Amino acid sequence: MGTLNIDRYHAAMGDASYKEVTRLHKKSLSEAEATFYVTQRKLSFAPCLGHERLVRFLMDSQIDRPRLRFLEQDRGGLTLFADAIEDMLFVGVVRAVRPGTIVFANEPFADIAGAFGLTQAQEIKFEHAFDLPMTTASIAMQLRMAAGDRWLSDFSLRRDGDVERGVEVATYAFIGGFNDTSNMEAAHRLDIPAVGTEAHYWQQAYIEFMYEPEIDARTGRPKHFEQVAFERWLDANPNGTTLLLDTIDVYMGAVHAALAATSNESRRRAFKGFRVDSGDLAKLGRWCFNFFEANGLHGLMPILTGDLDVEKLKRIVDEFPEAAGFGVGTKLSSEVRAIAGVIFKQCLIEGRPTLKASNTPEKSTLPGRLQLFRGTNAQGNFVGDCIALDDEDVEIQDAVKVERLLLPFWENGYYEAIPSIGKQKAFVEEQRSRFADIHNYPVRLSERLRTLRDELTASMRADDSGWRDVLKVPESLRDELNYNTAR
Known about the structure:
Elements lengths: L7 H10 L5 E2 L2 E2 L4 E8 L4 E3 L3 H9 L5 H8 L6 H7 L7 E4 L5 E3 L5 E6 H4 L3 H25 L3 E4 L8 H14 L3 E2 L2 H7 L9 H5 L3 H4 L13 H12 L4 E4 L5 H12 L3 H6 E6 L4 H14 L6 E5 L4 H10 L5 E4 L1 H4 L8 E8 L2 E2 L16 E7 L5 E8 L11 E4 L2 E5 L2 E2 L5 H12 L10 E3 L1 H15 L13 H12 L1
């Protein structure tokens, strides 16, 4: 049964649109054909993911009686809207880019058309569908680009808040470029490889050996309790494992790991890699790597973790290129600097272009039925995008092929098949290889769309209603008013 996945203003606008006092072209506003486009404003680029979530949200639309009564008893009396959404299956039309398509800030990646009263109430569904997936996949993609071909593991489960969000983060991180996850539920559901090292408290659990030590047969001296812990871990994982070195001190952790691994041949074979989770990761990782090499422990995989973000990872790769892989957790899902910021804005009403002309330029929107065009050169590389009107024929400089990216996705409850996460991952990787410089990729508006936007904005702001005959403007406010209405 569907939830009230709407803001109150959706219910209030929906209810008002059904009232006979509001008419448009001899029909109530609720019945007027409206189109809204969807984009994101905060990320330079991101794979467009979340289509399966959108389908689930659109399908899960029926509202139970307690929620309908809640609407009817609202202080505004939202009875018309409550009647409209009872037993509702949304029957509008959705276009979207192909799942996994890499899109850039402010590019339309979906739109929806239908009767205004119910279509405007789908806003939150689009925002919830795409925000988390695109944010996670964008971060994962940037980390992949920084790591090169080094291993990337999703260690975010403990920071994700609940298991369902953890599974989703693992999914979209994998599509965006990660190799595996520590999340066992995600591994089970999605066939993503599961990985995990020991935790600090494995060593801590052996502190009794600090008081009742074992004797090292090679030296005749007491073993440090951390050496004992490492020996027991290697014995428990004879087919290969990674040792975590910074429970007490990274340098001494490396010493104790080397003593444990060289104590017999089976432990040497089991020791495949080491993990550093604190301190100057590049400096400590390099020291440990060289130390192990000097003691005959060759070919170990240095795994570095600990609040890694894109900038930190790039620095480590520059300073310690031998790093084999990275585990990313906190900065993948919880301490995120910028989310996609998905927005849902009206661009057509009854066939007439409309827009939001904001006092903040970057919050202004685009009018008309939009289309996203992408150009490809003779070598198969992407050379530029153009946001234009759907009925335009667009040319892009240096392109021998121009594709339309907004394609039919949903109509009246039927939707296009969504590729597996493996296919989406491969599609993201294939696209990424076709951008010569993704950080400086050209995206432009067509001249016709730009002209429509500017002329419509000017018309909407035109000061020709005669309001000055009935309203007063204090002299202290006139300069600012005259400047803004003249723009």
